[in-house]
From TrEMBL, chains A, B:
Keyword Signal: yes
Annotated source species: Methyloradius palustris
UniProt keyword annotation of Signal present: yes
Residues of the signal peptide: 1-25
Superkingdom: Bacteria
MF term (GO), any: monoacylglycerol lipase activity
InterPro entries: AB_hydrolase_1, AB_hydrolase_fold, AB_hydrolase_sf
Gene Ontology BP term (one): acylglycerol catabolic process
Gene3D superfamilies associated with the record: alpha/beta hydrolase (3.40.50.1820)
Name assigned to this protein: Peroxidase
């Protein structure tokens, strides 16, 4: 072996070691340890992963979802370029307290959690119910909240079809997971993407969060239905958001509607809209690769 | 200098040479030589740039635009990942013949040009009037046309405000280039992006295409107005397009409307929609970096 080739192989070996070294447990949602932090009398459970520098991205979860309901393909993909924090809001999963029945209190609690972590500037990804919280935080805390991604969500007073669609989903006796019907369309391609999503979101076997029960579902359903059915005159909330917003939605969201996202795009001061084909509420999971690229590009700007 | 360091520096130098070698004239719209090819009795002028392998992307230009009216930031960015071909359709710039006054003939001529180049499969980027041609080609030639990007465009019968807006743009006495008002909004940020776009599109100084005169403008205006104002019952054309489509549009397109793109998204079988904030007809030039990333991701799938 000549010296030149040896040097190259040595370099390659060094790079491999470095790469293996960074792929620690913290870089995967499936294995990131659950941590706890107290704020406002609540013991919040959370997981951090990804880069140690850059603006942290806080993920705000959907109706009844715990940290384990996020798609690892999405969370790990975002974490390659920034710190990412997933957490359970008050009363959900391994977080203590009683689940609030209104979006205002959920926002207050999320703020207490972010403040407890000591962050001075964070970005938000709010999915569905989490998107309502993201809007309230962005409007009320322009110094703290940088960029906002609103996925599969709507605006205050935008209406909903939650009860009807939930009823249909849970009546699907052949379906092993209601998310197949709530997050994906009936097309074979979307259903296949749904099965792959559920497989990814089931990969964590150790220290999973406790599942949400009826108390959580009832409180959150009330919050969701009241918020989407309480008219916000002239969309004051949306119009008071000055941060850059990326809106992402599926072509056929049966719970919160696709048109709501078009309305948000038209009303917000500075929003980009992305609508995916043949997709329902969970379009960011169905098109996880494209979503991660789009979101990272938006957050990196 | 120790041998290890020397090897690394030698490697770095080798890479630099390789990189410099690939940055040939063919990789930049500003310097790519104009070529000619005959088809259907027309001598078409065109330029090829980018990679030599992969599905070629054919660019279809806007009302009165020549090859020099494309944004080098967009064309060169797309050419990094595929062969890109810009050309002048019949009668425009350095292409011979009489400019047709209807979209059907423009499509026939574009097809003749693509066939003359010998391609069996191409992708299309149609901007504005070029988007109409892209739709006709995609619907009629599913074997030849792979993916389609429709930017700043509309559908047959979608209506237009061309004459009104053109009149306003050309009456702006203080504006050195009507594209500042036709492609960008009145905001300082969009206008600044407009000036940068025009600067980029003016960088080519050698062998520019002849500018379009009144004959071309009259024929193309007729084609554009007739096409957008001739109703297509039940959007038959859009519904017959089966290829994946990426629709990109600005928040405030004053000529062809932003809502037209939402309608196209809803009507097409397999479309992704991207709407950019604070932007007019030329949103792909204003947000060239994000557009190039989005388009390359879409075309690479």
């Amino acid at each position: 072996m000549n010296k030149y080739l040896k040097s190259v192989l040595l370099m390659a070996a060094t790079f491999s070691i470095v790469e293996a070294g960074t792929a620690s447990a913290q870089d995967k949602l499936e294995t990131a340890p659950t941590k706890f932090i107290e704020a406002s009398g609540i013991k919040f459970s959370y997981r951090t992963l990804g880069k140690s520098t850059g603006t942290p991205l806080i993920l705000l979860q959907h109706f009844t979802g715990t940290m384990d309901y996020w798609d690892p393909a999405v969370v790990n993909g975002l974490a390659k370029e920034r710190p990412v924090i997933v957490f359970n809001n008050t009363g959900v999963g391994s977080t203590s307290g009683k689940t609030p029945d209104n979006v205002a209190q959920m926002s207050t609690d999320a703020l207490a959690f972010i403040n407890a972590l000591g962050y001075k500037k964070v970005d938000l990804l709010g999915f569905s119910l989490g998107g309502f919280i993201a809007q309230e935080l962005a409007a009320e805390h322009p110094d703290l909240i940088g960029k906002v991604i609103l996925a599969g969500t709507s605006y205050q007073g935008g209406g909903d079809h939650l009860m009807q669609v939930l009823g249909e989903a849970f009546s699907q006796k052949d379906s092993p997971d209601p998310r197949l019907w709530l997050f994906f369309t009936h097309s074979p391609e979307s259903q296949q993407a749904g099965r792959e999503f559920i497989k990814r979101a089931s990969a964590r076997t150790q220290n999973r969060d406790p599942e949400s029960g009826k108390d959580i579902a009832d409180a959150q359903a009330k919050a969701l239905i009241v918020w989407t059915n309480t008219n916000d005159p002239e969309n004051k909330l949306l119009k008071s958001i000055t941060q850059p917003v990326l809106i992402v939605q599926g072509s056929n969201d049966t719970m919160l509607g696709t048109e709501s996202s078009v309305t948000m795009f038209k009303t917000l001061k500075n929003a980009q809209l992305v609508l995916f084909p043949d997709s329902n509420h969970g379009s960011i999971f169905q098109y996880h690769d494209t979503f991660v690229k789009t979101a990272n590009d938006f957050l990196n700007q």
